[in-house]
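I need you to check the entry underneath: sequence plus fold tokens. Let me know what the token row says about the fold.

>
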Amino acid sequence: MVELVNKGFVKYVGVSNFSINLMERAQFHLGKVPLVCNQVGYHLNDRSIESDVLPFAKENGLTIMGYSPFGYAPGVFGMKGFPRVGSQERNVLDSIGVKYSKTAHQVALNWVLRQEGLVSIPKASNKEHIIDNLNALNWELEKEDLEQIEFNFPFGGIS
């Protein structure tokens, strides 16, 4: 990889789903070439990176690229997807959304993007998805809303 960077074929080096140990090993082998990004799953029901990977990335100037900001596909991965309409968690997101004239998905994406040094790659299979995702930007959740989200989607790994 270092040779590819030195020859100009690769501009930046990133990894996917790396633990702290793997990021440290990668950086060791890259030498002076900086590791700039770790792409990991991050959403309301998978906050596992908050205890180790995210703080490490912030301390070391790495960007976290969070994938699946609306949850994993439950039919494929067997984990929780985005909260279903009528569930307690969805009602929380919907009520917060009303306050800002936003959808539950926009609230969730805004929550993901609240962290400095974290970007997200939400699915956008059509123009409407792109517009919906863009409407998650340029506004901030108030402290009381963040607390409501934290209470209803507690840290604790993957669910």
